[in-house]
User: Which sequence fits this backbone?
């Protein structure tokens, strides 16, 4: 049994999404597959459950609430494209 998002999660399927690779392996072992239903404690899982997407900066153990993740995402997308003007 593994996380319900396993088939679509970028952490699983995008090479280099987490560096180093050993950290990615640890996340997968600790959150995605081995410990029954521990994916419920994964911030990527929690964020996706609420927002129906998950920003790339969110890792399973990021020390932010989903509200804080939303705020950070909103701030990132509202930055000016060309800040030199
Ligand atoms: S536990 Fe988290 S990182 Fe792992 S597949 Fe699910 S959402 Fe992705």
Assistant:
């Amino acid at each position: 049994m593994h996380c319900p998002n396993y088939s679509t999660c970028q952490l699983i399927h995008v090479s280099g999404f987490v560096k180093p690779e050993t950290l990615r392996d640890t996340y997968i072992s600790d959150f995605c597959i081995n410990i029954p239903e521990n994916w419920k404690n994964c911030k990527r899982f929690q964020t996706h459950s609420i927002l129906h997407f998950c920003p790339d900066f969110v890792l399973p153990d990021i020390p932010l609430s989903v509200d804080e993740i939303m705020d950070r995402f909103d701030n990132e997308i509202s930055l000016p494209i060309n800040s030199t003007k």
